[in-house]
Design brief:
- A hairpin with a 2-residue loop joins strand 8 and strand 9 (about 220-225).
- It contains 16 helices and 13 strands.
- It has two domains: about 5-135, Rossmann fold; about 140-395, Rossmann fold.
- Helix 6 (about 155-170) packs across helix 15.
- It has helices spanning about 15-25, 45-55, 65-80, 95-105, 115-135, 155-170, 185, 195-200, 205-210, 235-245, 260-270, 280-295, 320-325, 340-345, 355-370, 390-395; strands at about 5-10, 30-35, 55-60, 85-90, 105-110, 140-145, 170-175, 215, 220-225, 250-255, 275-280, 305-310, 330-335.
- The chain is an alpha/beta fold.
- It has an eight-stranded mixed β-sheet, sandwiched between helices.
Length: about 400
C-alpha cells in the first residue's frame, strides 16, 4: 500500500506527537517531518528542511491562541512546496475555514476529528495526489501479447518482456488474462488473489486495493488470472481495471494468450503496441493471419506486429514471405532456445534474465517499445537461483480464485 509522506505543523509540541501517532496509525500516511513553534510562526530553517523532504501532504493545526499565524503558515507552505497538498485541522469557525481554504488548504477537518474522518480525508487526498502524478508523468504504456495458437510461447514472451521493461522503468505490472493463466508458474508465484477480485471490487478499486490483489515477483507486480477454467470477465470491467493499472504503473504487459473475444479487443484498443507471438510453421502463421483480421477490425492495425518465437534463420519461409502471408510486420525474432526456456519455466525463473542471447533479444524489444529509455540497473551479474522442486511447486501452487 502506498502511504502519503506527511509533514506535521503545530504550535503545540504535545499535539505534534499526538498527530504523528494518529497519522501513522491510519496506515494511509506516514509522518516524515514534524515541527512545533510557540506562536505558530514557521521558521525559515524548518521550511527549508520540509522542502528538502518534498512531502506528499502537510497537516497544519490551526488550534491555539494565534490561528491567523497558522493560516500564514499554509500560504508559505504552498509557495515553497507547490506539489504538497495541505490538510488543515482546527475549530469549526466559518471565517477560519474560509481563510484556510483561500490560503491553499485542500481539506479542512474539525480538531475533534475521529480516526475514520482522518482516513477518509487521506483517501480523498491520495486520489488527488495520484491524479496529479498521472497528469505530470502521463499514463503508463500498456502492451498486449497474443498467441497465434497454444504453445506458441505468448506467456514466455510476456514475462520476459516485462522483466526487460522493469530494468528500464522499474514500475511494471504483468496482467494475466489468459483463459487459464500460467504466469504464476513462470514466476514461481503463489497468488492468493487476482484479476477476478479486482473485477468484483470495481466500485471501490483504487491503487491501494489493487496492490493488495497483486503479488511481487522478481521485481515486477503480477495480477494473476484465473487458476481454473471457465471463469470469464465482462469486457467493460476489464477496461476499467486496466485504466486503474495505467494510472499507477509506467508499463503494463497483458498476457492474453489465445484469447479472441471482447476482452481481447478491449485490451487491443487500449494498448500502445500489440504483439502477436507465432512460430514459423504453416498452422501458426495461418492462425496469426486470422487473429490479425479479428483484432484489427475497428482498431489501429499499425500497432499490431509479429513476434516469431523459436526463430530459425534458414526456415522454410523467408521473413518477407511470413510478413506477406500474415500481413503483419515482424518486430522481434526470439532465438530458438527451447531447452533453456523449458528448464527456466520449470524452475519458475525467467530465461531472459542475464546476458544471454535470449536476454539481449528481449532488451532490444523493450528498447524498441520504449525508445529513449535505458536500463537503470546493470545486468552484469546473474542472481543466484535457489533450488526448485518442480513437483512441489505444482502441488503447492495456490492459483488465484
Amino acid at each position: 500500500m502506498i502511504r502519503l509522506r506527511t509533514a506535521i505543523f503545530s504550535a503545540d509540541s504535545e499535539q505534534v506527537s499526538a498527530l504523528q501517532s494518529r497519522v501513522n496509525r491510519t496506515m494511509c500516511a506516514q509522518s516524515v517531518f514534524a515541527y512545533s513553534q510557540a506562536g505558530g510562526v514557521l521558521a525559515e530553517a524548518a521550511l527549508q528542511e520540509a522542502r528538502a523532504l518534498d512531502p506528499d501532504l502537510a497537516l497544519v493545526s490551526l488550534g491555539g491562541e494565534n490561528p491567523a499565524a497558522r493560516v500564514v503558515c499554509i500560504e508559505r507552505l504552498r509557495e515553497a512546496l507547490p506539489r504538497t497538498a495541505v490538510l488543515a485541522v482546527g475549530p469549526m469557525d466559518p471565517r477560519l475555514i474560509v481563510a484556510a481554504m483561500r490560503s491553499g488548504a485542500r481539506e479542512y477537518l474539525d480538531e475533534n476529528f475521529s480516526d475514520a474522518n482522518l482516513v477518509e480525508a487521506f483517501s480523498r487526498m491520495a486520489a488527488s495526489h495520484e491524479q496529479a502524478r498521472v497528469d505530470r508523468e502521463g499514463r503508463g504504456k500498456l502492451y498486449a501479447v497474443f498467441s497465434a495458437k497454444g504453445g506458441s510461447g505468448g506467456t514466455t514472451v510476456a514475462i520476459n518482456l516485462a522483466m526487460a521493461l522493469q530494468e528500464r522503468v522499474q514500475s511494471v505490472a504483468v496482467v494475466d488474462l489468459a483463459t487459464l493463466g500460467h504466469t504464476p508458474l513462470h514466476l514461481d508465484a503463489r497468488p492468493v488473489f487476482g484479476f477476478m477480485d479486482a473485477v468484483q471490487n470495481l466500485h471501490r478499486l483504487d491503487r491501494a486495493l489493487l496492490e493488495s490483489f497483486m503479488v511481487s515477483c522478481q521485481g515486477v507486480r503480477l495480477l494473476a488470472g484465473p487458476g481454473y477454467p471457465g471463469i470469464d470477465f465482462p469486457a467493460e470491467d476489464v477496461g476499467r481495471v486496466l485504466d486503474v493499472l495505467s494510472a499507477n504503473y509506467r508499463a503494463i504487459v497483458v498476457d492474453c494468450s489465445t484469447r479472441c473475444d471482447g476482452v481481447a479487443r478491449t485490451v487491443d484498443e487500449r494498448c500502445e503496441a500489440a504483439l502477436l507471438v507465432s512460430q514459423s510453421d504453416a498452422i501458426s502463421l495461418w492462425s496469426a493471419a486470422r487473429i490479425r483480421e479479428y483484432l484489427v477490425e475497428g482498431s489501429d492495425a499499425e500497432k499490431l506486429s509479429l513476434v516469431i518465437n523459436r526463430f530459425r534463420p534458414n526456415g522454410a519461409l523467408s521473413e518477407k514471405e511470413i510478413e506477406a502471408k500474415t500481413r503483419l510486420p515482424i518486430t522481434c525474432r526470439v532465438p530458438n532456445q527451447f531447452q533453456l526456456v523449458a528448464k527456466a519455466i520449470d524452475r519458475g525463473s525467467p530465461a531472459g534474465v542475464g546476458n544471454s542471447e535470449l536476454a539481449r533479444c528481449f532488451h532490444q524489444l523493450a528498447a524498441r517499445l520504449l525508445p529513449g529509455s535505458a536500463p537503470i540497473v546493470a545486468n552484469s551479474e546473474t542472481k543466484k537461483e535457489r533450488p526448485h522442486r518442480i513437483l512441489e511447486r505444482l502441488l503447492n501452487l495456490s492459483p488465484a480464485r
